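A note from the maintainers: we've had questions about how concatenated examples are separated. There is no special marker in the raw files; a new sequence line simply starts the next protein. For clarity in this README we add a label.
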Amino acid sequence: MPRKKSVNHGKIVEAAKKEFERCGFKEASMRNIAAEAGMSASGLYKHFPSKEEMFASLVEPVKAEFEREYRERERREYAELGSGKPEISAEQTGGNRWAMEYIYDHLEEFRLLVIKSGGTMYENYIHDVAKLEETSTLAFISELRKKGEAPIDLPRKEVHLLVTAQVNAVFEAVKHGFSKEEALHYADTLDGFFMPGWLHVMGVPAEVLQADVSA
C-alpha cells in the first residue's frame, strides 16, 4: 500500500473508532467519519465499500484472535485431562481472569462489540461467546465421563443458563465502565464465585472442592 494511502487508512480507522464509540453503529455517519479523517466521502469509500465493512474491520481481528486463544486454552485443558492428574485444575474451571485480561488489553474493540454493535452481524456477540463456552463445557463433561469421572447429570438447558450467566457477568465489567484494575479484581471475584459450583458440577470430590475453595 502506498504511503499516502496507508496514512489515510490509519486516519480513517481512528476516525471510525471515534464515531462508532460516540454514536454506535446505527447512528454513525460515514460523512462524519470522512470529515474527521480530513477527506471526502467518496475518498472514504475507496477504503471501505460500506459502513458494515468498516465496523467489521475494527472488531473482527480481535474477535478472531480471542477465539483462537480460547481454542488454544481449550486444547491445553484437554491435554491436561489426559495427563493422569487426579482432579480438575483451576485453569480448567476458572477462566474469568484470563478472559478479562484479554478483553481489557483490547478494550476499544470489545466496547464496540458489546455496546455499540446494534444493527451489525455482531449485535449478539455475548450470546455467541456463551454458545462457544456452552459447547466447550458440554464436550468437557462428555470427555470426563469417557475417562470414568462422574460429573453431575445436568440437563443441557441448565448448563446453558449457567454458562450464559457467567459469560454475561464477565462482560458486565465492560458495560459498567470498569477500569482494568477494577475489572481484574472483579474477574478474581467471579472465579471465586463460579469455580466451586463448576467443580461440584464436574464431580470433584468434596475434599478437593474444599481445598480449592480455601486456596
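[label: protein 2]
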Amino acid sequence: MNKFTAIVLAAGSGKRMQQEIPKQYMNLGGMPLMAHCLKTFQESKCTQIVLVVAPGDIEKCRKEIIQRYGITKCVAIVEGGEERYDSVYAGLQAIDDGYVLIHDCARAFVSIDIIHRCMSAVALYESCVVGMPTKDTVKITDDHRKVLDTPARSNVWVVQTPQCFEYNLIKGAYDKIIASADTDITDDAMVVERATNHDVHMIEGSYLNIKVTTPEDIAFGEAILKNRR
C-alpha cells in the first residue's frame, strides 16, 4: 500500500493579516485556522501528517492543536525556516518514502475531495499541483510595466496547494536547489521544474480553496464555513 504524507506548512508570521497573533492560530468558526486544515487531512485517506511550525512553537502546537483536536495522524512536528522552501525541506527530512502532499496551512478550506484527487493524480503522474483557471485576463509586462503579451486565458492557471510529488523526486529536486542556493523559489513545482526534467501536471482545485492572507479573507472564510454547515 502506498504511503501518502501531508506536509502542512504553518511556520509563517502572517504579517499581512495585521493581527497580534500569527494567522494560523486565529479563531475562525470556533477553531484555530490551523485546526480546520489539519482536521480535513485527518478525516481524509491521507496516511500521515508532518506539521511544520515556527521556531519555538512545537509544544504549543502539540498541546493546543494536535492533542486538543485529535489529530492522531500527525507523526512529527518540526520547526520551519526563514523561507517557505526552508520549511518544506525541513518537512521532507521527517519522512523517507511514498508520496508527499505539500500544503499551506493558510488554505484552511481544502476539501477531502481535492485531497483524494491529489492522491490519485500523484500516483499516476508523480508530480502535480492543484490550481484553477484564471477568471481574469492576464497581461505579461516588463520591469517598466509595459505590456509584452496577453496569454490565452484558457492556458493560465492560478496555483494552489496541495502540491504533490513522489518522495524521491521532490527530495532530490530540493537537495539540488538548496545546494545551489537558488532563493528565487515561490512554490514546490518550481523546484521540480528547475532541478529535473519531470513534467508537472495541473489538477483542478476549487475557487473556495482560498489562501487566508489579509483581513478581507476572514469574511470569505467565515462564509465558506457557514455554507459547509
